[in-house]
Design a protein that fits this description.
This protein is of the alpha/beta class and about 250 residues long. The protein is about 50% helix and about 15% strand. It has one domain. It has twelve helices and eight strands. α3 crosses α8 (about 165-175) and α11 (about 210-220) packs antiparallel against α12 (about 220-240). The radius of gyration is 18 Å and the shape is globular.
Length: about 250
């Protein structure tokens, strides 16, 4: 169904959207557990500067390519990741297909109140979906064990962790082993979108790979460094791999 591809020294799982949903749903219902991440240009730039994030990505059970930057860069290096597999699209599709099978989901992250609003909207959209619990992401470190115990007691198939890059990947990598049978997925701003706190780009903009520009226009003060400076850093990172001696492209594994 999928093959594993190396891009910027990170292993991605290459597959279509429908294949990703099928694979994820099967894993969830079998309660395999594990770590699932989506990596975009910002993730790759951060990982190049943050070895703890790079280690988390390296320990993923499933790593999916998110965004036009990763697709463009991987094509340049000879290992094209053709499909845009972002969590903002895949998670609702997964909930839709899983609702008929009583898929259970726990929402962790975002500001206080957001997870509850997102949960209500998901339940309304997919009536068969089981919301196992919610917890905002602004809890103190001292409360971590209490949060983990609540998640274990709820026994969801899927834990959505919305803490942003790199905190969510590092958190999952550190604690997933303490959540047996639960698949932990880093989802960034998903809960803000589902709660309708932040508007998504119109489909036409998403279809041409320019959602990043829409997000920059919506939140310029918060995102200008990520998308303006970050994209230039990503470009330089890709080009350094493209022209490095004895490397050129990267190999499919």
């Amino acid at each position: 169904m999928a093959d594993r591809v190396s891009f910027l020294n990170t292993h991605f799982d290459r597959m279509s959207s429908s294949e990703a949903i099928e694979l994820l749903l099967a894993r969830l219902l079998r309660q395999q557990g594990g770590r699932v991440y989506y990596a975009n240009a910002h993730t790759m730039v951060t990982a190049a500067q943050n070895p703890v994030l790079a280690e988390a990505l390296d320990h993923s059970d499933l790593l999916l390519a998110d965004g036009s930057g990763v697709r463009w860069g991987s094509a340049l290096l000879g290992t094209p990741l053709v499909h845009n597999l972002n969590g903002t699209d895949l998670v609702p599709a997964l909930c839709k297909d899983g609702a008929a099978k009583s898929l259970s989901v726990y929402l962790l992250g975002a500001k206080p109140g957001v997870a509850e609003e997102a949960a209500a909207n998901l339940k309304k959209a997919y009536p068969g979906l089981v919301i196992a619990g919610t917890q905002h992401g602004y809890f103190p470190q001292a409360k971590t064990e209490q949060v983990l115990e609540a998640i274990r007691a709820a026994r969801p198939h899927l834990l959505l962790v919305a803490m942003g890059v790199p905190l969510q990947e590092i958190w999952i990598n550190q604690y997933a082993s303490l959540l047996p049978g639960i698949t932990c997925m880093g989802v960034g701003a998903l809960l803000d979108f589902v709660a309708e706190r932040v508007p998504r780009a119109p489909y036409a903009i998403r279809a041409v790979g320019m959602e990043w520009l829409w997000r920059l226009a919506m939140e310029p003060g918060r995102l200008w460094q990520r998308y303006l400076i970050g994209n230039l850093v990503f470009l330089s990172l890709v080009l350094s791999y493209a022209f490095a001696p004895r490397r050129g492209g990267e190999q499919t594994t």
